[in-house]
């Protein structure tokens, strides 16, 4: 069966986020005030063939641990959708 996978990778609490800090400092110059605590991460979406949803989630989590995220400084949240539509996995 095909599963849509949505992985959201973000920095761990307490880890510096220089990109987020740069964006936060730049926003007032563009007229956007009252913005704080900006954090930048990444999203990875893909379709995965697996026998069941638990296997799809396990495989995606292994991918995160080995390649998609650096567990020393990042955390990864995995969403799996049985539709095979990785965009819809974000809603699960």
CATH class: Alpha Beta
Number of separate structural domains: 1
How would you classify the helix and strand content by structural class?
alpha+beta
N-to-C CA distance = 17 Å
Please state the average pLDDT score: 92
Q: Based on the structure given, which CATH architecture is correct?
A: 2-Layer Sandwich
Helix run count: 3
Q: Work out the radius of gyration.
A: 16 Å
**Largest sheet properties:** 3 strands, antiparallel
Approximate helicity band: 25-40%
Write the element-wise H/E pattern from the N-terminal end onward: EHEHEH
- Which percent band covers the strand fraction? 25-35%
Question: Could you characterize what this model shows?
Answer:
The longest helix has 16 residues, at 53-68. This protein has helices at 18-26, 53-68, 86-89, and strands spanning 2-11, 42-49, 74-81. Strands 2-1-3 form a three-stranded antiparallel β-sheet. It has 92 residues and is of the alpha+beta class. It is elongated. Helices cover 32% and strands 28% of the residues. The protein has three helices and three strands. The protein has one domain (2-89): Mth169, Chain: A (2-Layer Sandwich), CATH 3.30.1280.
């Amino acid at each position: 069966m095909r599963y849509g996978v949505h992985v959201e990778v973000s920095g761990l609490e307490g880890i510096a986020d220089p990109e987020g800090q740069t964006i936060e400092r730049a926003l007032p110059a563009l007229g956007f005030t009252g913005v704080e605590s900006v954090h930048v991460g990444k999203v990875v979406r893909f379709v995965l063939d697996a026998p069941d949803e638990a296997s799809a989630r396990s495989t995606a989590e292994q991918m995160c641990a080995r390649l998609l995220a650096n567990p020393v400084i990042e955390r990864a949240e995995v969403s799996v959708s049985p539709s095979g539509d990785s965009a819809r996995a974000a809603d699960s």
